[in-house]
Each structure stands twice: as C-alpha cells, then as structure tokens.
Amino acid sequence: MRLFLASTSPARLATLRAAGIEPTVIAPGVDEDAVVAAAGELSAADMVALLARTKAEAVAHAQGASCDGLIFGGDSAFVIDGVIHGKPHDPDVARERWLRQSGRSGVLYSGHWLIDNRGGTDSGGVGIVTHAEVHFADVTAAEIDAYVATGEPLTVAGAFTIDSLGGAFIDRIVGDPHTVVGLSLPALRNLVRSFGIEWTDLWNR
C-alpha cells in the first residue's frame, strides 16, 4: 500500500521513514494564508484540520489516477496566551516569540487528513486533530539569538522543533511527542485502519 505525503515538511518525512514508511512526497501547492483568510475566524484545532484537509485534497485533485493509494495531509499550529502562532518566517518575530515562551508552556495542535485514493479515485477522507502540551526551558537571550541565526525556527509552527536543534530547549512534552513534530503516528494508524487497511501494510523500508 503506497502512502502519498501532501507535505514538504522534512520532519513529517523523517517521522514516516523512521516508522518504516517511505512515502511519495508531493508538494500540495496550497496558499495557506488565503485558505485561512477565506474561512474567517477559526480556533487552532479547526485551522489545522482545514489546512490538513485542503492539502490532501489538493494533491488528490491535481494528481488523480497517478496516486494509487492513501494521501496524507498535515498541518500544525502553536497556541500560547490564547494566540495562534504558525511559522514566524522573520527572525525578529521568531526571537520575540522565544523571549515570550521561554520558561513557559503552550499547546501544539496538529491536523491530520487521510484520503482513500486507491485505484486513483478519491473515495473520501477522514481526519483527526491531536494536541500536546509543550514546556520550554529557561532559555538565555544568547541561546535564542544563536538558535534564530540557524534559520531553523523560521519555518516551523511555534518557532521550535523537538527533533532537531530546538530539542534541547524543551523540558518536557505532555501528550504524544510526534504531535509536536506535526504527525501523530498513533493517530495516523487509526485513520489508516478506518479504511480496513493494516498499518503494517504501509511498511516498505
């Protein structure tokens, strides 16, 4: 059973590979800001659910019969002080966020959407949103500057990772740690099995 990953996230790809799955990566080409703007006011959970579904459906519609298998789309957002944070992109924004979240905690939400595209036909999709509580260490201003200078926090939700350079700055995770990477393996397994497919059928590494 083939899995098509409607995401260019290196962390999602690495997570799947470590779990024994080598997916076919297809960039969804979705204007995320436009999708969110068109939807109006959304909670973090609703936002990541919408974007995960939009990404998976974009690949299904664009690729059609060439995607014979399952198509997975994912998205993540971080919430602290009631404010939703996606990717900061700008170094000054990333630094400001780290100064605010150092020594504190927030919640990371990850949306998952899986389409049954066996035979190259979209037979419907299922989704779920997971969340995990992230507790940050007390990080010094020098550490923040050094981390931001690497560029890593600019392209990830919440301006942090747990599976790379940012991992040392996180004290603990309450919940599924894979959620913080952007892809909960237990959640994806449940979605896969809802289609009558065994998780182990995806193993191909």
Report what the structure shows:
It is a single chain. The longest helix is centred in the first third of the chain and has 20 residues, at 44-63. Strand 1, helix 1 (10-18) and strand 2 form a beta-alpha-beta unit. The protein has helices at 10-18, 32-39, 44-63, 91-101, 141-150, 177-181, 185-194, and strands at 3-5, 24-25, 69-80, 83-85, 105-117, 125-136, 170-174. The protein has a single domain, classed as Maf protein, CATH 3.90.950.10. The two termini are 12 Å apart. It contains 7 helices and 7 strands; from the N terminus they run βαβααββαββαβαα. Strands 1, 2, 3, 4, 5, 6 and 7 form a 7-stranded mixed beta sheet that branches. The protein is an alpha/beta fold and 205 residues long. The model has no long low-confidence stretch (mean pLDDT 95).
Shape: globular
Whole-number count of domains? 1
N-to-C CA distance = 12 Å
Percent range for helical residues? Answer: 25-40%
| CATH architecture assignment name | Alpha-Beta Complex
**Overall pLDDT metric:** 95
Could you tell me the strand content as a percent range?
A: 15-25%
What is the CATH level 1 assignment?
Alpha Beta
Provide the CATH topology: Maf protein
- Low-pLDDT runs of 5+ residues are none
Task: Tally the helices.
Answer: 7
Alpha-carbon Rg, integer: 17 Å
Largest beta-sheet characterization? 7 strands, mixed
Order of helices and strands: EHEHHEEHEEHEHH
What's the total number of strands?
A: 7
Task: Describe the secondary structure blueprint for this structure.
Elements: E1 3-5, H1 10-18, E2 24-25, H2 32-39, H3 44-63, E3 69-80, E4 83-85, H4 91-101, E5 105-117, E6 125-136, H5 141-150, E7 170-174, H6 177-181, H7 185-194
Parallel strand pairs: 1-2, 1-3
Antiparallel strand pairs: 3-4, 3-5, 5-6, 6-7
Helix pairs in contact: 4-5
